[in-house]
Amino acid sequence: MKFWSASISNEMGELWLDSRLLREMQGTTRLEQKVAELFELLRDPLYRYLCRLIGKRPEAEDLTQETFLRLFDALQKGHAMGNVRPWLYRVAHNLAIDWLRQQGRLEQIEEDTLPFAAVVDAAPSAEQRLLAHERHHRLQVVLSGLSPQQRHCLFLRAEGLSYREVGEVLGISISSVATFLGRAIKHIAEEVNEQ
Amino acid sequence: MSNKRGKNWFRFGWHPNEEELLMCLDGEAGERQAARVRTHLEGCWACRHQREKLDRAIANFMEYCEVEAQSAVGLPPHATAQFAERLRLTAATQPKPGALARCTTILRGQLTERRLVLAAMTIVLLASLALLWVRMERPVSAQELLQRTTQAETFSISRVGEPVIYRKLQVKRVGGGVPITWESWSDVRRQQFRQRIADEGKVRFLGANETESPAVIAELEQIFRANHFDLQCPLSASSFAEWRNSISTRAETVAETKDEVSLTTLAREPYASHTITAATLIVRKRDWHAVALRLQVQGEGEARTYELNEMAYEVLPLQALTVFADLAPTPALLATPSAAAAPVATAAAVPALLPSVALPSALALQEAEIAALYVLHQQQADLGEQLEVVRDGNRQIVVRGLVEKSERKLQLTNALRGLANVSLQLQTVEEAVQQAKPSAPTPVVIDEAMTSTVTSTKPAATSANPLQQKLVEHFGGRGPLSEAERQAVNRKVTQFYHAIETDASAALAEAWALRRLSERFAANGDLKATSQQRLHEIINNHVARLQQRARSLRTRLEPALLPLTGALPSVPPATAATRPAQVLAIFQAVAQVHQLSDRLIAGTGLSVARELLTELARLEQALSAIEK
After folding, report:
1. Per-residue CA distances from B618 to B474, B554, B611 (Å)
2. Does A40 score more than 60 pLDDT?
3. Considering CB atoms only, which of B18, B79, B97 is closest to A76?
């Protein structure tokens, strides 16, 4: 039985490492194996999040691995850890911010449009393709107009994180998360739905 | 929460805003809030429309995310292997977490924040209580009181060289006449003891040849003797502790005042006649010095109370006192308090409080000693084995010391068993080593100088000393010797040295045993015939063995040494008249022979040979004298 299957304690997808599992992990020499299993479970969502933050896939790939190495280091040093998922997202978020700061792109990214170019899937008809493309473009514009915190909240929520987890990643309260999300969704609704 | 959305003029009352609707849709609203919004949505088309708009916005956003995800679905497949390698390298280069880190993790895992706070508060509370407990003045226990007082006594004595404890007590029996003043001087090192009494305006020393003890003192001495109190230091914690340890305690209380602490100990019933039923020791807190003692004693059909109050106390150097000047030095009789006070206890005016302690008489002890010596003599244990026969006060004779092996211990134990008034304290070397193990062992350091000295005193057949050449000529002739002959001669020389050393050492052991006997039993007129006979037999045996050793030495030495020394001067006959003087002369002659033998073997010169033969003749004269 994989250890995290027992540690997923709710339907929200939270990945809890309770004290028993943590002891079990630290008491065994297979900590590397456990972290490798966690990597397989959460690497893609984290990678996507990092891609959205920094817009560079090779760097996002490296930072994803670095995030899990940090997890291994923390577990081996005996750090207390409850829900692993927000912890991983927070580390990944901070690593991304550091990287952007090193690159001198932090302000640009936060002010600029989203880094990914829209790639619209092939639609059945030309009219549908055109509408989808327009909607995607409009959303991209709308998202670019949101504040960085609103964007971060949206993307983290889209990854399935609860308000509390989003708050843990960003270091803000749950009510702040609700406010940011509410304003962001309202803005999207006003700017995209009306079209 | 807002009450209106502005431009919808026809909407009255409360309506959830987008944030509240979104929280409700996301399941993040509280139960009450969610129920309220649900209820409201059932009756509010406008808000249901708003909810759908939010849903559509979310759907659009998620559609956008899915499209984005298609361009970045996930990490490439090679990332798994790449990460595994990085992880392996990281694990290999990082040290394993210590036990402390693991414990901390476990604690963190088991303790929530609230529990941590509670645990911290508990620790702080316990620490505060512990601090208060430490600072709080606790009542002293009986054991602690006695221990501190004993330590204070020891300390006060240790500060003075050759200490003499001077103590002045006021002694009284409650309801039994006027108090008297009792002064005592106790010489700790030499175990001399003097006491002086002041009563009815008279001051006098007490002792065997002096006036009688006052009744109260005589009573107390008998009580002390019967109850394991130290007669010379009754007002001391160690004496009190000795009594306390000897009884079955019924109850004990420690009372404390501003300046004093008192310990009252009640003995458990039944009370034998004249035993102490209760005792109170009062100690001054300032310096933990015992200042008073109260005793309740079961007399013949009555209970008596005695009080001893200290009036003066001092530890003085012996040199500063003249109080012992007129005392005959009889340390053996003063070895124990009971011995010192025994003559005092014969006061005829005092009604006997208790039957006299069944101690053996001095004569019985002397005879027991001779019996023990006789057995040791028969077992040849009086010739240099590490054994001694000593007196344990006036109570018994103790044979104590070390023997090589357990077989020897068993042999001596069997031989000495059954002797009246004789006890054994024998140990094998192994037992002594085991006993000494807890203490730090003293390393045996053998330095080169010591080794070389020992080596140099060993006779070496090939060493070149003046006597060596003569002995080689004596044993091998003057002609040239072959290698085999030379080696044979060397062996003979070595055997010669060895025999001389053996005889001289054995003679010295016999002489020591003879001297000890002579000094110990200089006057034996009161002994039983059996004991006198044993003593005589032991002495005769020693003399006979000495004569045998002397003859053996002469037989060996004269053929080899006389050709070198020539004729010897005649030795005058022994002049010592008394037995002790004769024994002393024998001992001195044997000691001289032993010393000269060593010098001869060490090759210090041919003149030693002449001295040795002369001294040997003197020894034989002394032995002849004592035999006559």
Report:
1. 26, 12, 10
2. yes
3. B97
